[in-house]
Amino acid sequence: MTGTTALVIILIYFSVLIGISYMTSRKSTNKSFFTGDRQSPWFLVAFGMIGATLSGITFISIPGSVFGKGLQYMPMVIGFFLGYFIVSYVLIPIYYKYNLTSIYTYLRDRFGTASFKTGAISFLISRIIGASLRLYLVAEVLDIFLFEPTGIPYSIGVLMTILLIWVYTFKSGIKTIVWTDTLQTAAILLAAGATLFYLADVNSGGIAHLWEMASNSDLYNFNGGKLKEGNIWLGIFNGIIFTVAMAGLDQDIMQKNLTCKNKKEAQKNLTWFSIVLVPINFVFLLLGILLFETYMGTGDLKAIVIESTNELGDVVKSGEYRINIDGEMTKIAPDQIYPSLAKNGYFPLWLSGTFLIGLIAAAYSSADSALTSLTTSVCIDIVEKEDRRTRTVVHVLMSVILFFVVMLFKAINKDSIIWELFKWTSFTYGPLLGLFGIGILSKIQVKDTVVPFIAILSAVSSYFMADFFGLGFEILAINGGITALGLLLFKKKKTCEHSASLDE
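-> structure tokens emitted (504 positions)
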């Protein structure tokens, strides 16, 4: 695929998004930016959330993950399914009861201003770094497809893409995103479906043969990685905690759900979304296996086993992948196998174009909602102003911050450091888990002024515990537990009569 072709595809795609923005912004008010006027059809939100959940990282990482971990991700997906039921029937009723626009205002009513600000700042740090990392990883792929072939400087390309997001979100915000997410989800699923169709044609025998290929593959297993030799139950538990903390307590995800007309429609949206999420993630994992089985060992894609000796004298085996690019076997990360096949002539032009649209859709379905949720949180939680002028200034500011963080990642240009930063952000969700957990499951009041210190101590101690003990996602529950313990140690004697608890 040439750079010019990629540019035309991307411009057409963004033109459609801007057209949707124009249609949805008519009769919009300033409040529409934050709440979508609470008129979003539940089924539209549910379908659009698929695209928002399958971010640019997920779109290329889930297929890539099977090269080292098989189906290890699937137990977590089952946990996601169960976790969304907790979000739907515990958190959603509270958010609607208090008519929240930003979910962190619950913490102000429950504990006080310091807790409120702690929750909001935790989200802002996590989402800025997380959204920037997703944009950076996709920008790296766009650099191969578009920027370098057309001579567009990397910084200008990133700036243009963020500007395009700003253009179609600045007027109606979440009201527009609910509709653009629908288009983006369709594009992601189309790209995956088209790739499966092509692989069925290449391997002959149709879908039934693809299933036979995948199920008979050595990658069709649950072993390896951080799940302690394939501990499926631990994976499910981690998936539940992950969903409650990083979806149910995340303004980005919840803001879409709060655009539904009422609590029941929001619950219906989450229920159907969680059901559909399981087979979709399974298909993406199968796609990774099929790419491996189709191209591995043909001379196009090679796995090389590297042996080394550790300090104890044990032989340690690691693997790396090389792909044939213009007659030369080039080292490549597992995450880049899918896009490299699309870029370097292994797919026909129509499939490479479809892949590119799917990748762009996956990247910007998370980036546009992140920009909107960051703007919402800063306006409501930090400056506590919702007027149009403040919202516009903050929207521009958040766009600028995302640009500079992406460029910082580019300047660092070391995956180990960048992923370490991303790893740090996951620890900010633990304090949120502890805060909301104590707030919902009890009626105690805490000393509000010490909450920021408890949150920082919890995040830092959890980080070092995870590193020392080699823990995986289970550290999120431990992190929340440390926060909850700290809150209990600094509780007030007087209980809160108006707290939101499960018996309400």
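The mean pLDDT is 82.
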